[in-house]
Amino acid sequence: MATINIPKNEFLHGRWTADESAKLYGVNDWGKGYVAVNQYGNLAVRPTKRAEHSVDLFEVVQGLRQRGIHTPVLLRFNDILEYRLKEIRKAFDDTMAEQQYGGGYSCVYPIKVNQQRHVCEQMASLAVNLNFGLEAGSKPELIAVLGLSATAGGAGVNGMPIICNGFKDSEFIETVILATKLGRNIIPVVEKFTELELIVKHAKAYGVRPKIGIRVKLSSKGAGRWESSAGVRSKFGLFVSEVIKAVEYLKKHDMLDCLNLLHCHVGSQLYDIRVLKNAVNELSHVYCELVKMGAGLTMLDIGGGMGVDYDGSQSAWHSSINYTVAEYAADVVYRIKSVCDDAKVKHPMILTESGRAMVAYSSILVIDVVGTSRFDPNPDIVRIESDMAAETAAGAGGEVPQPVLDLLDTYKNLTDRNIVEAYHDATQARDEAMSLFSLGYMSLPMRAAAERLFWAIGHKLLEKSAKKGELPAELETLPESLSDNYFCNFSFFQSMPDSWAIDQLFPICPIHRLNEQPTRTGILCDITCDSDGKIDNFVDKRIDKRTLELHEVRELPGDCAGVEPYYLGVFLLGAYQEILGDLHNLLGDTHAVHIALDAAGQWHIEEVIEGDTVEEVLQYVQYDIADMKRAMRMDVEAACKQGRITLPEGKALLKFYDDGLEGYTYLEE
Ligand SMILES: *Cc1c(COP(=O)(O)O)cnc(C)c1O
After folding, report:
1. Among 405, 423, 580, 562, which residue's Cα sits nearest to residue 492?
2. How far apart are CA 210 and CA 98, in angstroms?
3. What is the pLDDT of residue 8?
4. What's the domain count of the chain?
């Protein structure tokens, strides 16, 4: 029997479906099973990638609102974190079993990726069962990690590997040596030779046989943005000649058995797996040579760099990666195993410091749109013609400037066949109009007419091209320049600083209305007063997507009533963004809420960490709140006395001031 395929769309009389939204925003590509569009047209988070464990994000945001917690809000999913860590564990366990690798695996979490206590505590407690560990890269991080490993339970205290990278002074190393006496499994990694001397000195003084690591400067180059993390010109590590010197030094002090770990770090977000393979290959050879020289090596730490597919394209470019976790694990294990087998050296325990890959998926920011601005496609010809008449009216003595006449002519005579020509004419006339205005030869109403005509022509050109199904190359930038501005209640600098600093892409998608066709395109602007505070590059399979498809934001009835809530989710923010975020415009930390799933698949709030108040950010920049309140009160008092303000007005102002200090730094309607 023949079946007839009726396209779903037609069957539904052209109704837009949630599936179409999923495709449009690439949800299944970058969401990797953690995010999906559900039947209600909302985004759903699936911490275990299974449909029955689904959290409706729109429902969560509404639930939070009912509890007085407003957007912007960062949602953390510890269940995603757990699933992700297990995924990494499993990838290595599986490939090690398959390849008969004898050395074992551990992943240490470099806390610099996100040092928030709640994240690190969760990480430490998950690490105990997974045989994972922690990494510190500075003195404050060491102090945090020592505290974290104390609270991680019995197994954590003595077993959990703690790797110390970064530059270390004498006090740092003394702390590490003494912590060894507590039973911590702590390994300082020598970044420069003098650190080794300090380790030996303090170890002898306290009678400790420490575990020592050495970071090697490899000749293999890093790649991408963090290329300089590796290679012989890198900031960190010992040259191979220094490594040999280190071996001799340790031998002289009868401590060569303490040299347990060899380390490298090739860079972050390694998008091309080949770079890592080369480095691991080189490091493995160094490892085997050192074992033959008598070093007590048992661990090979290949650093961080496991990337995340931010744009879902699975390709070798900045915001993506060309490998999966399983492929990463298989390649690493294979390289190390072959080098060691050839050299007849026992397989080392493999460590990775895969910070980004561990936490990126677990945090999602939800922001609300507070308003939009757009170019009017209707030039209002009646108004323009009356303004023209006024310009030439008796007494005014002027005439309509030629560029305005040209624009009007172009607008009226647009056809399907002169699209490119019309665009050139309009651009030229617009530019001439602007220079006439700057020279003082054009009135404000005529300039307004020129602008409106130009936008209207642009809209018509896009409409006509859309109908033809192709956009002429000359008009390529037009959709972007005519797209809407969506103003969103958040700070780009606080919540996604890498987007500003290094053009990192993060997936962005409305969390509701996904069974409605988006009819607008726009860029996103934050509420800082910085013109850089905008997002005009979006994830897509194409390289350069400059605008995002968005839904019409509906005005609420009544004057100044604002808009109907429209929420966007920004995904994959778990790594680096929280700690790199800054206080531009004094917009502080957002609220962070931990959402968990129970056995029945219901979500609940596990933890609410309130965002900064205005008072807190002001104190951070050394304001004295009590002083400020006193000064305001005295000003109000004086104004009352002089009759410039009434007592109730003064009281109201002071109340706004006090409430403002205690309030959120973001807009709260
Ligand atoms: C930053 C850093 C890491 C973490 O890198 P990711 O790209 O987040 O995996 C690991 N090790 C060292 C030494 C680092 O400096």
Report:
1. 580
2. 34
3. 40
4. 4
Mutation probe of ligand 1 site: the residue of 85, 113, 300 with most atoms within 8 A of C-beta: 113
Q: Is 113 in the pocket of ligand 1 (CB under 6 A)?
A: yes
- Residue 294 DSSP label: T
Which atom of ligand 1 is found nearest the CA of 357?
Answer: 9
Note the pTM of the prediction, 2 decimals. Answer: 0.92
Q: Is the pLDDT of residue 24 over 80?
A: yes
Q: Residue 586 is part of which domain span?
A: 1-76+360-374+482-611
Give the Å distance between the CA of 72 and the centre of ligand 1. Answer: 28
Residues 193 and 269 in one domain: yes
Claim to verify: residue 587 and residue 637 sit in the same structural domain: no
Predicted local distance difference test score (pLDDT) of residue 652: 97
pLDDT of 223 reads 62
CATH number at residue 348: 3.20.20.10
500: left (phi over 0), alpha (psi -120 to 50) or beta: alpha
Mean pLDDT of 388-409: 86
Substitution candidate for ligand 1 out of 228, 268, 328, 498 with most atoms within 8 A of CB: 268
- Tokens representing 488 are 């969103």
Is 650 contained in some domain?
Answer: yes
Question: Residue 399: which CATH number?
Answer: 1.20.58.930
Residue 389 buriedness (CB in 10 A; 0-12 / 13-18 / 19+): exposed
pLDDT single digits (tens) 100-121: 999 999 999 999 999 999 999 9
Q: How far apart are CA 289 and CA 340, in angstroms?
A: 10
CB of 237 closer than 6 angstroms to any ligand 1 atom: no
Tokens of 97: 């079993």
Residue 165 CB less than 6 A away from ligand 1: yes
Does the beta carbon of 355 lie inside 6 Å of ligand 1?
yes
- Judge whether 477 lies within some domain: no
Q: Is 263 in the pocket of ligand 1 (CB under 6 A)?
A: no
Of 472, 507, 530, which residue constitutes the final position of a domain?
Answer: 472
Asked if the model's pLDDT at residue 394 lies above 80, the reply is no
User: Same structural domain for residues 124 and 264?
Assistant: yes
278 lines ligand 1 (CB under 6 A): no
Give yes or no for a cis peptide into 72 (omega within 30° of 0): yes
- Same domain? 334 vs 416: no
Q: Are residues 389 and 370 in the same domain?
A: no
31 Cβ inside 6 Å of ligand 1: no
| Residue 428 forms part of a structural domain | yes
pLDDT band per the 50, 70, 90 thresholds, residue 2? very low
**Residues 346 and 370 grouped into a single domain:** no
Same domain, 128 and 12: no
Residue 348 counted as domain residue: yes
What order do you get walking across the sheet with 55-56 strand by strand? 35-37, 43-45, 55-56
pLDDT value of residue 1: 35
Q: Please, which pLDDT band fits residue 151 given cuts at 50, 70 and 90?
A: low
Task: Tell me, yes or no, whether 462 and 503 share the same domain.
Answer: no
Q: What is the mean pLDDT of the chain?
A: 92
How sure is the predictor about 412, in pLDDT bands with cuts at 50, 70 and 90?
Answer: very high
CB of residue 304 inside a 6 A radius of ligand 1 = yes
Select from 472, 493, 521 the last residue of a domain.
Answer: 472
The CB of 306 under 6 Å from ligand 1? The reply is yes
Distance CA 669, CA 71 (A): 10
